Task: structure prediction
Amino acid sequence: MTQAQQSIFITGNSSGLGRGLSAAFLKRGCRIFGCSRRGYTGLEGDLKDIQCDLTNFNTIPVAMETLLGKAKGLDLVLLNAGILGEIKTMAKTSMDEIRHIMDINVWSNKLLLDWLLTWDRPVAQIILISSGAAVLGNKGWGGYALSKATLNMLAQLYAHEFPDTHISALAPGLIDTAMMDYLCVEPDPVVYPALNRIRNARGTDVMASPDIAAERIISVLEEVRRFPSGSFVDIRQILEPEEYQKLMSARHQSRSAPVKE
Ligand SMILES: NC(=O)c1ccc[n+]([C@@H]2O[C@H](COP(=O)([O-])OP(=O)(O)OC[C@H]3O[C@@H](n4cnc5c(N)ncnc54)[C@H](OP(=O)(O)O)[C@@H]3O)[C@@H](O)[C@H]2O)c1
Result:
């Protein structure tokens, strides 16, 4: 990081990882621009937040102009807003549910990237918050997994269009947020065995608090830039290669031994 004050734009910063990232960067004296439906973080510091439902596509350009119109450029953009949807089989997932997940997890980001292109001010680094679900293909993660796999390709495709900006899709590992309140309580782990790993991780170091997850992301910002622009990077590849290997081998095991509903 340079000595000058850094300007950072974070979507979905009213809770979870986005709020943790906002708090961590504010502590470092950065200027934060944030957006979410709540439009409020409760954090103190150099923070400008805007209320915006990113699924209302037509309102995105006006919201971005209001939020970033006076900024001279951005050191970092974290496209973090996202939803999980319900854990269920593909056959039971309706088109409306998939569309809704895709709207927030993918297409709103397409429009934000388009807006940043026309904004025509320097943007040094863009990180799209992805997930291990983008490559794991676990039963039950249908709409979410599809959305994060598409997000990874979105990063690759936009890398061609942002020659002066480093883009990556980053899986942040397990984080104890509102998503976990659902995953650790509601769906049945007998039907969806991948839930066992998540439930066993809660309350251990394997599942970080939003504040710790934010620090982990900040610690790899430089390292991520060593990957070609457009790459998908799982933070565990960098910080916990053994944990990452375990995750990837469990993926193949669950494929060879499917559990019947
Ligand atoms: N938790 C994990 O273990 C984990 C693992 C891998 C990846 N991730 C990814 O990390 C990101 C953050 O998730 P989280 O776990 O921190 O969940 P979270 O606490 O539910 O946070 C989601 C954020 O997205 C915002 N958001 C949702 N819908 C929105 C909309 N229509 N318009 C604008 N903002 C919207 C929410 O704000 P409002 O409700 O105020 O709109 C909230 O600030 C997501 O992309 C998720 O896929 C999480």
User: Anything to note?
Assistant: The mean pLDDT is 94. Residues 95-119 form the longest helix (25 residues). Residues 102 and 147 are 5 Å apart (CA to CA).
